[in-house]
């Protein structure tokens, strides 16, 4: 199998670079990913008749539950799995080159927030810590290690200890990142309301069946009031992706240069919609080199002309699973 130069993925500087790399990765995955190639053939699409990234077929995300979606014969170094429920099948993302994932999440974090070593990173992710195979735990654990701060670490259900830690860090004026799953952050504000002035609070979504679902605005209002912060940040990622989008408030997400969001018509899944119109979220994640870089998610959202996007909910018929978004 011909190797793909992964350096190209993280050296995209403009729209033309993105287009060129996206089309080359489409060709690479068409040639090396049997599941994706069969899907493309079914749609009568191939590198011969695709000349734009928007013409590339987007593989339904459910294929990660039913097929081994891989573009290499190399054995996986790790397998990321979705949380799922007892009734649902979990997604499996076979990752043959973990360095590609590390490079993706570190470069994106540095792009939007700076160096991890500048933060004390506190992670409140109980539902993820309680199972194996979480790509989010892998990412946050790496950020905590790179932070190197003596107080950085994970918290399971010890909210009082976390609260006391936040008070100490605030008293010292330490630059802090608190990253948490929605239901656990709500537990924290109910039991230990605070006023945080040096802390970025980032939710990764998901009630995981522990609480009733809230729309994002309602969730963020409760957290902003309970933690005394002006904005709640958000992370948009999922098991099937190796890249993340970030929002620094108001639910407006940005992506790194190797990731792009477009929306599809909910009535016609093969047609791409203009900016500002609500539709199904399609993700181009060029870091997904060895699985599939072109994925049709079960999220609803809309894009903006400047490349940002919003997540507005989920398709009604999709099962609720470990993907960080909330149901309308």
Number of strands: 14
User: What general form does the structure show?
Assistant: globular
Largest sheet: 7 strands, mixed
Structural class: alpha/beta
Q: Mean pLDDT, rounded to whole units?
A: 90
Could you tell me the strand content as a percent range?
Answer: 15-25%
Low-confidence stretches: 318-328
Helix content: 25-40%
> Separation of termini?
44 Å
Instruction: Give the helix tally.
Output: 9
List the secondary-structure elements in sequence, H or E. Answer: HHEHEEHEHHEHEHEHEEEEEEE
User: How would you describe the oligomerization state of the chains in this entry?
Assistant: single chain
Query: Could you tell me the radius of gyration in angstroms?
Result: 19 Å
Q: Order of strands across the widest beta sheet?
A: 5-4-6-7-8-9-10
Keywords: Transferase
InterPro entries: LuxE
GO molecular function, one term: transferase activity
Pfam families: LuxE
Description:
With 328 residues, this protein is an alpha/beta fold. Helix 1 (15-32) packs across helix 2 (34-42). The chain has helices spanning 15-32, 34-42, 63-66, 98-113, 126-129, 135-147, 159-171, 182-191, 216-227; strands spanning 59-60, 78-81, 92-95, 120-124, 153-155, 176-180, 199-203, 233-236, 245-247, 253-254, 259-264, 279-285, 294-303, 309-314. The longest helix has 18 residues, at 15-32.
């Amino acid at each position: 199998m011909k190797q793909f130069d992964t350096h190209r993925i993280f050296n995209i500087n403009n729209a033309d670079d993105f287009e060129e790399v996206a089309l080359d990765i489409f060709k690479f995955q068409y040639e090396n990913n049997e599941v994706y190639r069969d899907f493309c053939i079914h749609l009568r699409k191939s590198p011969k008749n695709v000349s734009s990234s928007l013409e590339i077929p987007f593989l339904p995300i459910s294929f990660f539950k039913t097929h081994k979606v891989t573009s290499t014969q190399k054995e996986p170094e790790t397998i990321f799995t979705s949380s799922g429920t007892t009734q649902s099948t979990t997604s499996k993302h076979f990752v043959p080159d973990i360095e590609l994932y590390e490079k993706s999440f570190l470069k994106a974090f540095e792009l939007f927030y700076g160096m991890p070593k500048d933060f004390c990173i506190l992670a409140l992710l109980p539902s993820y810590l309680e199972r194996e195979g979480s790509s989010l735990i892998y990412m946050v654990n790496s950020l905590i290690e790179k932070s190197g701060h003596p107080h950085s670490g994970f918290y399971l259900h010890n909210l009082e200890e976390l609260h006391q830690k936040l008070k100490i860090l605030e008293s010292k004026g330490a630059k802090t990142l608190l990253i948490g799953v929605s239901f656990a952050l709500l537990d924290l504000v109910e039991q230990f309301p605070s006023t945080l002035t040096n802390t970025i609070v980032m939710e990764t979504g998901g009630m995981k069946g522990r609480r009733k679902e809230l729309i994002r605005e309602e969730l963020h209002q409760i957290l902003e009031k309970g933690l005394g912060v002006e904005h709640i940040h958000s992370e948009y990622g999922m098991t099937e992706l190796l890249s993340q989008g970030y929002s620094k408030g108001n639910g407006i997400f940005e992506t790194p240069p190797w990731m792009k969001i477009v929306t599809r018509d909910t009535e016609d899944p093969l047609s791409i919609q203009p900016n500002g119109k609500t539709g199904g979220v399609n993700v181009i994640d060029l870091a997904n080199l060895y699985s599939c870089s072109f994925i049709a998610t079960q999220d609803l959202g809309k894009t903006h002309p400047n490349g940002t996007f919003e997540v507005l909910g989920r398709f009604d018929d999709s099962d609720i699973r470990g993907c960080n978004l909330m149901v309308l």
